[in-house]
Fold each of these.
Amino acid sequence: MKLKTKKSAVKRFKVTKTGKILRGRQMASHLKSAKSKSAKTRYKKKAFVSKPEKKNVKRLLPYNL
């Protein structure tokens, strides 16, 4: 049986060549005037999905898109 990919997950996550999953950071979208410059710079960088959550994300992305 073919597995369907969750399209919302495709937009949010990226799988690297080594199999790690990248995600965006929270708190970067609004109320930026109250945040420091260093914090705003930190929000631009991608982060890796934690090991406990990796299993759930892999279930949403069965074909590593």
Amino acid sequence: MPPGRNNPTSEPSFPDAHVLELLQSAAVAVTLFDPIGARALLKIPDAELGRRFKRALVRVAGLATVLNIEQRSIREESAQRRMELGANQGDSMPARLVAAAKLIHFSHFCAVIGLTPQRVRKDLASQRIFSVDVNDEPYFPAFFLVEQIRRKDLAKVVRTLGDLTGWDKWGFFTMPNSWLDDLTPLQALFYGDRKKVLRVAAKFAKQ
């Protein structure tokens, strides 16, 4: 029998090793930032802690979309890491957005936003939210989870955009707009300019 097979103490494969490295870095950061809070986290059941951690990750990714922050502007990846990401995820824009958790699969979106699939479909049909197609699967923007932007405000803008495609709506929300002093509509909503964004959305929908 080859050594290491079915051995729980053997070295993990690369994807598992990378995940463990990320979790270890997160644990170090939490412990250094707030040692008392880190001890409090130990009292949370494993499954609940995992759910909360995933929810926090997705919300941070959504906030990065709102503020137009590119992860690579914060930490440059090594050439080897870029090659590995490219090999595993492809070079297309949708693949990069999914990899950065800026787009979330329907099943994960329901879990993180705390709504049933039926409710999400209802909100989608009533144009309170929108999705985009990636490989014929529905993905939802993580910015719908950002607590700093009111969901009602987002819903009004989405509805104003009408029957535009999901990707057209994504482009509207995430691209700088000259009518908004070169802010993206997401950034303008973040800063409280709801009425101005609605006017711009109405113009965009008529183009």
Amino acid sequence: MLAISVVVPTHGGARRLPETLAALDAAASPPGGAEVVVVDDGSEDPVPPALAEGRAHPVRILRHEPNRGRAFACNRGIEAAAGRVVLVLDDDMSLAPGALAGHAEAHARAGPAAGVIGRIVPSPDHFTGRFGRFLAAEEERRRERMLATADDVPFALCLTGHFSAPRETLLAVGGYDERYDRYGFEDIDLAYRLVRAGVRLRYRDDLVAVHRSEHAASFAVHCQRHREAGRMAVRFAAGRDDPELEAVLRVRSGRPPGRLTAYRAVVAASQWLVRALPAGPLRDGLLALARIKVASWEFLHVPDRLVHAGYHVVRDMHYAAGIADELAGNR
């Protein structure tokens, strides 16, 4: 059995994959060997077979139609993987040379199965401008929280764009939940079920992947994704009466966790307003106006602290809209 399989789910990633695969070519192979499984999730521009040729590690390209979402693509890759360990890697991540062997080594030690969260470093070439700096600062705060809990990371911090676990452990909890057919929460749902199955999540700051996101400069895309995430949050919460989960998802309360401050009061009030408005032009118009207003601050002499707070508030308004959409059954 191979030591590790790298599963790369992709949709529309034909332009991103060459750089991702080139970084994997430069990665040292662990004892026992490695392979790469690219899963093309119904891309309109299919991944060309030639991308698999002449690689340092064997590359297989799987394809299905139509587009079924990241959860489905990850599951197909996990099922097809020949490695004892599966490393899930997004198609816009460049793995550092020692990280592939590092993930395999992290699972080679005796002891209970664990999930390993690798470090994600925002690429300075992609995370530009005020909004890019906001996203990079958010990732750094997430990193600081994981460093503080490195041997037992809370499930809510586990994003699986750079994540490994034993293949059999992933299969034992049912893999990714394929109800998540839009952006958001398929990875945190997986982490939630892993933790409840007794699997500890560990953070490894020395295992690095550089994130080359194409959307790091687009606040509008970010907001749209969070509206989709709101819909997925409702699916995550369904049938689970768990206060810890509600504190993360805020499906019922809409209020950010923690002590009530002026900022949290603004967030809660803005989310209440979005949920109170009927679906359609009124709600969508309010969201568009809020996006445009905050995006315009990029070019004004407004302190970064206020601009970043604005990004948070408007993003959460879109999240609240997604929750309302899903609860109402709107498409």
Amino acid sequence: MNRRRVLRLVAPSFLALSLLPGSVLAAEPMAAPEGFAEVRARFENLTPSEVKAAGYIADPPVCVAAPDGSGAMGIHALNRQLHGEQFPTDTMDPQNPPLLLLSADQSRVVGLEWEAKDTGQPAPELFGQTVPLEPGHPGIPEPHYMLHAHFLPDGQVLFNRVNPALSCELPDTSIAGGPAAPMSTPIVALMAGLVGGLGWLVLRRNRSTRNA
């Protein structure tokens, strides 16, 4: 069974990033700053089952790619408990990222992400980086602070929205099974539409039965 597909999410907020003052649009690979190698070591080699056991869930598993083809963020796996503790209080715990960035087939942790609510506080600092204020996205519509840290070879890290070396294209495989394939926005929208349509038909039928 060939599962080779290219799945992309090009969110409107991604296209608006360049319009936000003070937003950093490019970065260079760098040696891991103090403290980052330790947190990377805790997450980089986790298996999919260990990621889930640690409370990180990709639901739905949507792979986020840059609209211009310059790379990808990967699939976001959210730890709801950590996010609920950190985001509303505009804090970022460097040792406990609320999101993991996964490869398109969900087999590897390829990066980390932190998010914090904008409460009017000065821009947070994390691992020596000034965290940029970014536009909102589905789930969090208001602008907020986000830092993406992508793992690179030789212990280097890229603090940038996307990793140019990362893709949302799944590898060729002839074996069925494994993690569920990431979903694109049109598929998610289609599923939502089907569910909504079925609910409307059931409601209409019940009303017709009562009025008969």
